[in-house]
Amino acid sequence: MVIARTLHELRELRQKMNGTVGFVPTMGALHEGHLSLIKRAKMENEYVIVSTFVNPTQFLPGEDLDAYPRKEKADLEICRLAGVDGVFVPTEQVMYGEDESYLCAPRIRSYTLEGIKRPGHFDGVLTVVMKLFNLVKPTKAYFGKKDAQQVMMISQMVKDFFLDVEIVPCDTVREKSGLALSSRNAYLSAEEKERALALSKSLHHAIKLIKNGERDTDVIESEMLKILNDVDVEYVAIKDRLLNEVPSITVGDTVILVAARVGSTRLIDNMWI
Amino acid sequence: MVIARTLHELRELRQKMNGTVGFVPTMGALHEGHLSLIKRAKMENEYVIVSTFVNPTQFLPGEDLDAYPRKEKADLEICRLAGVDGVFVPTEQVMYGEDESYLCAPRIRSYTLEGIKRPGHFDGVLTVVMKLFNLVKPTKAYFGKKDAQQVMMISQMVKDFFLDVEIVPCDTVREKSGLALSSRNAYLSAEEKERALALSKSLHHAIKLIKNGERDTDVIESEMLKILNDVDVEYVAIKDRLLNEVPSITVGDTVILVAARVGSTRLIDNMWI
Fold first, then answer.
1. A255: pLDDT strictly greater than 90
2. Which residue of A141, A166, B120, B134 has the smallest Cβ count within 10 Å?
3. B231 and B101 within one domain
């Protein structure tokens, strides 16, 4: 496995890959969720490149950029064991210069849901993903459905800018308890982790209601909020797959999303119906 | 010569090009300036693609988007005679969708010079150029030095986003009178065209002063303004090649720029020292 830290090393690595390349861009602190993306990329491509870069431009002032877990040694070992061909581990200086041009996410769709509490977050995500795509030149790129809005913004960018890459949204991986895996779970105390289960429980309850025939989004949202009464809810939302508001549910074209703070940790979760 | 109007037609055209591709993106209304870009692209590449698209996102409200000259038939004939292999003539619907992601030019460097009177102009330029680059996949792309700040913003974007294209800045073509060729010259009356010569005259005067040993930018600028007293000056500026302010001139690393209105027509010109 090649570890590329500079543009030159990455380009040299990429040049040697004569076939399909699956790309898994991450912020490191790899867990089973990332591993499932890597496994899928392995299955579907001749080569796999993983990047681990805690991208500063997608953190807002006051967010957890400094605290975000960094586990380079473990990350590299996980990639090695998973049969990854190359890991790109750039510094901020490799990825960014001063007074640069940058990507702006769609002004309407990126300012709902996550965008309300994290304005500008998706500008940073799209900027770094576009840079990484141009460097790695992947055939397919793998993203977790857990960051549903992120997957949609990136798919939108690929379409808007005519990029030659296929975006593959992958199912969220969960603990047995139902908790969606997240690098930020590391911030949770045992008691908070227990309370955090309300997110997945509320989503499972929504699915149960839908299975029982409920279609009214207001009814489902208020039922979910009852289960979420012990955490600090930022939003509960039921949208179509393009994240437009919908008054009622269409099975096969719905995403139910929740964001909440548990203690000082911000968590998100969703299920695609 | 292939005329591609849809994404499908352009991709089909591009796929058949097995070799270096020179790209000349234009807004149509082709003149000798564009032709010199095309000739250089022909010389340096196996294939040449020209695009003619009046890009709405780089016009500000109240600017001349509707009035901008459209001469498709003549443009295609000029390209055919010049031996161009393919012309991309997209509609707005081909290039843009609704609520899209877009490029933002560097917040500092794009808000000097042109950016002061045309805030957001370079966002539109970079967005369309990035889209076109991703579609055309050129080896080299040719731009006129007349739009000096544009060439620099595009070169910056190529660097920021790790694009695989070489930007080739090409010398400004002038009428015998000295007037820099521009599609917007079509707006000028005979009397205005005469007055417009003040721009190139002021630049030639600046060069003469520099040849005589003058290095102080303030002195040169005030001498230029005397020549420009009969037009409505927006700016006279002396910058280094990265468009930073400089207190004195370094030959080989200087651009002298001028923008002015002549009647209701806005003109720009510059010389690279």
1. yes
2. A166
3. no
Residues A161 and A190 in one domain: no
Domain at B209, CATH number: 3.30.1300.10
Cβ-based burial of B43 (10 A; exposed 0-12, middle 13-18, buried ≥19): exposed
C-beta of residue B255 within 8 angstroms of C-beta of residue B270: yes
Please tell me the distance in Å from B251's CA to the nearest CA on chain A. 25
**Which pair of tokens denotes residue B36?**
């010199």
- At A67, list the tokens: 């605290």
Among A123, A131, A160, the residue with its CB nearest the CB of B161 is A131
Q: Are residues A208 and A266 in the same domain?
A: yes
Task: Decide if A178 is inside a domain.
Answer: no
Q: What is the pLDDT, as a whole number, of residue B200?
A: 98
Reported ipTM: the value is 0.94
Owning domain of residue B187:
183-267
| B-proximal residues of A, 146-175, CB under 8 Å | 153, 156-157, 159-164
Judge whether residue A47 has pLDDT over 90: yes
Which of B101, B104, B165 to mutate: most A Cβ within 10 Å?
Answer: B101
Residue B103: which of A7, A101, A159 has the nearest Cβ? A101
At B174 the pLDDT is 97
B104 plus B6 within the same structural domain: yes
Positions of chain B with pLDDT under 70: none
Q: Count other Cβ atoms within 10 Å, centred on residue A190.
A: 6
Residue A2, strand partner residues: A86
CB atoms inside a 10 Å sphere around CB A174: 15
The CATH number covering residue B66 comes to: 3.40.50.620
**Whose CA is closest to A88, among A16, A2, A183?**
A2
Q: Cα angle vertex A241, ends A235, A247, to 5°?
A: 65
Amino acid identity of residue B42, one-letter, is: K
Q: Are residues A142 and A219 in the same domain?
A: no
Same domain, B17 and B70: yes
Radius of gyration for the alpha carbons in chain A, expressed in angstroms and rounded? 19
Model pLDDT for residues B192-224, shown as the tens digit of each residue: 999 999 999 999 999 999 999 999 999 999 999
Are residue B120 and residue B200 in the same domain, yes or no?
Answer: no
B238-268 tens-digit pLDDT = 999 888 888 889 999 999 999 999 999 999 9
Query: How many structural domains does chain B have?
Result: 2
